[in-house]
Amino acid sequence: xxxxxxxxxxxxxxxxxxxxxxxxxxxxxxxxxxxxxxxxxxxxxxxxxxxxxxxxxxxxxxxxxxxxxxxxxxxxxxxxxxxxxxxxxxxxxxxxxxxxxxxxxxxxxxxxxxxxxxxxxxxxxxxxxxxxxxxxxxxxxxxxxxxxxxxxxxxxxxxxxxxxxxxxxxxxxxxxxxxxxxxxxxxxxxxxxxxxxxxxxxxxxxxxx
Length: 209
Fold this sequence. Notes:
Elements: E1 5-9, E2 15-19, E3 35-37, E4 42-43, H1 46-55, H2 60-64, E5 67-70, H3 81-105, H4 114-131, H5 137-146, H6 148-151, H7 153-162, E6 170-171, H8 173-183, H9 190-197, E7 205-206
Antiparallel strand pairs: 1-2, 3-4, 3-5, 6-7
Helix pairs in contact: 3-4, 3-7
Keywords: Calcium, Disulfide bond, Extracellular matrix, Glycoprotein, Secreted, Signal
Family: Belongs to the SPARC family.
Domain Kazal-like: 18-75
């Protein structure tokens, strides 16, 4: 069932999918449930947003309307070139920390597979080694070239987590949303970063990109 749609039966008892009436969305507890659309409009909740998007299906406006980020719409400062340069490094580091946290908490393999755990174990051991002292830039550059686990695996892992509908080696706007939407209010370079990732401007982000 597509987001924003509900199943109903017509007069002859035939089930069909129709757009949800926004007024039937569950009542909202607080501001934290609000979402901002790419139309720069605050919606009470994601339910209200998708119900509204559904009614615009087939129109140009509906095609362009996406959930932009979690939380009410606010002024997001423009991302400077210098900040954009730092952003991928910070993001990669953050993903690495997410993986290490999962590794530490995962006792019965429902967070990471055995194969993933082996990769993260290497990251874990490398972190300890790198924390042990000052390292020259040459050594760190060498480390970067040799060390897939530490620097690239967290990005590949996150890509795989998002690439689900369908699994095709490309991320759509919708697949990217679980990562983008909570990040934007905290990291104002998020949108510009993902726009730049899409090097061929085909609206999909390939793993290579």
